[in-house]
Model the fold of this input.
Amino acid sequence: MTRLPTVFVSHGAPTFALEPGLAGPQLSALGRALPRPEAVLIVSPHWMTQGARVGLSRLPPTIHDFGGFPQPLYEIGYPANGHPERAQRALAVLQQAGWSAQGDERRGLDHGAWVPLLYLYPDADVPVFQVSLPATLDSAGAWAFGQALAPLADEGVLIVGSGSLTHNLHEFRAGHGHEEAYATEFVAWVREAVQQGDGARLQRTLEIAPHAQRAHPTTEHFLPLLVAAGAAGDAVPARVIDGGITHGVLSMDAFVFGPARP
Done:
């Protein structure tokens, strides 16, 4: 079986489900262009746990884990099947790599998972299971976590890290009528790192990139990018999918790592 690429997507605000903007159609085009996976493994910062957990549900429910948004958003479901067999395999590879991991038969798909999947696979016809983001990860740990999951990309599983290339919620809530310069400068720096395949530099993004603290006051929405890159193994150079910047401060970029890039 041909190794699948790994993918990082920015899921932005929950309203991305209703407002596709520039990124939505591009994710839909990506879903059509990628080799069809047997299952999607998705890591989201909206499921953080002590140690790792792997969703084993055959019918994972859609979780509306947000408040104060338009009612139509709460009426959206993403009725994809789970894939307990592939999820058990993910659990095994994590444990074999020395990670503390356990299964969860009840967990559904949070909005960090189902919102981008609405565009990647709008027919919900590809099985999906979620893997939590261990709460104690730093940048090196997120990379290593991705490396532990990497064997699954050789077994028909599309590994997706879902986060946000920039994620300052205070500024998002304050509202911005134009793109903030700090966000565009941070995005340009990260794009250069991934396009050059500079994994060491990428892992130091939150230490050395311009405006890193402002772009990510907390780290959890950046770490899924490192999980996806770490899972790509030696295939770190990435194709950039320009998703634009919404609400002035939220970059919606996606990256596709690996030789099977469309």
About this structure: The longest strand covers residues 39-49. Residues 114 and 127 are 12 Å apart (CA to CA).
